[in-house]
User: What shape does this take?
Amino acid sequence: MSSAPLQPTRPRRWTEPARIGEMSPLGSIVTYSVLIFWSLFVLFPLYWVVITSFKLPLDVNAGPVYLPFIDFTPDLHAWRDVLVTGLGDTTKPYVNSIIIAFFSTIFCVLIGSMAAYALARIEYRPRFGIILLFVLCLIASCIAVGVYGLDWR
Amino acid sequence: MAAQTLPVPRSRGAGLSEWFDRTSRHWFIWPAVIMILIFSIFPLVASLILAMSRIRLRAGGFNIRFVGFDNFEKQLFGSEQFHFLGTFSNISPLGWAVAIMVGLALLYWLFAHIRRGKVWIPGLIGRIITAAMIFGLTMLFAATLLSGEQFGTLGVTLFYVGFGCGIQFLIGLGLALVCAQPIRGRTFFRVVFFLPLMITPIGIGYAFRMLADTTKGPFSPVWQWAGLGNFAWASDPWAARIFIVIADSWQWIPFIFVILLAALENVPRDSVEAAHVDGASGWLIFREVTWPQIAPVAATVMLIRVIEAFKLVDLPNIMTAGGPGIATESMTLQAFFAWRAPDFGQSAAIAYLLLFVTVVLCVSFFNLVVMKRRAAEAI
Assistant: This one.
């Protein structure tokens, strides 16, 4: 056995990595092509929707056109309708969405974390009386509405 | 970690803060309890009452009349049976063969469980319910699909769940495995792959409807070249269902991908490298080293995904509005159409049937697969 320090040898086959912890050349090709293919698959619908928003109705209906400025001239009429002439109609749902998302997240995190802390740290024994009371309330409301025709209101 | 009770102050000076401390156990948990009571339990009970009644809107209010299980009967046996279960007259030989094989397998499973020793009665009852549900669904599948007839919304929902979630799991796992390799730009790919989950489902429905158009969509040259230029995919039941599965997969694969990627990154590199040095091939490393360590996480993420998949409603509504006839109508969509009719009793009954199927399938999946995986991992 020679005492020369070990050198990394050039991979003889496509399927051998140069070093442990790296990918083999064939592995690299397959991996990157899968990643790039899936990136295209993910991004293409978004790209299509974005460029369609810049198309005139003629460009949309006549057949698919793919590249702005080359296949068709982009036009801002759709964006104008949404953001300028119909601004009131657009901002209201938008603001609603933001409010709902914001407040529901805050409530969920607040109440959930409090309950999670309590459940993890404090010992709760289900007390029979409370459960019985709860079930009785449910049954009573079912009977009252179903059998006696109690008005919902 | 054992739950600890908060120390109760024994001093006589009971100020407001001490009282707060002593009753904090209630302060912490009552908001969550109240929210669950209002938003989960009450609607559950109210839905049950609605499902067993017949509501008619009239000027100034509504009439409600108790009718018992009529709504359920209508879905399962009565005039809506073709809608809910599907059309079936005779079961073909293939259907009988599949049903009998599945039935025998389930009986064997039950008896093997009983023979294993002392049996916990609720567990046995649970297994019997699971076996009954699986056999019932197999009979439905045998009677409708394998006999050349169409199946109704229950079958369509199970198709979305089974086929859709299966594909999503395989592709998500494949992407996670690919992304866990030593690649450059992993953060970029992670962000890009996560995008579809952040888009509203209705937007996805419209986007995919645009994409799938055979004359105006971007793939129309491909369709023309394949000779399908005039193929109206929206009027063929199976093509429509497959398109909805594609859109659903596009949206939800990132969820599975992100969680499985996190699990894969937690697999210690030492065991993988040791196996590699020992000369194990990639597949062997995956099967013996990686998979047992991510199996609990995979089971949990699939449970969450399956529960969510049962509720699919936006995509069929936007893409095909229920499909040619009722071919792509999931159960939630059927409940929505019934609600719009307006027939609230029917809607609640369909929702309760969906709840029943979902609970049995998901609880059995949880108990039989997830818990077993967790127990195996703990050992």
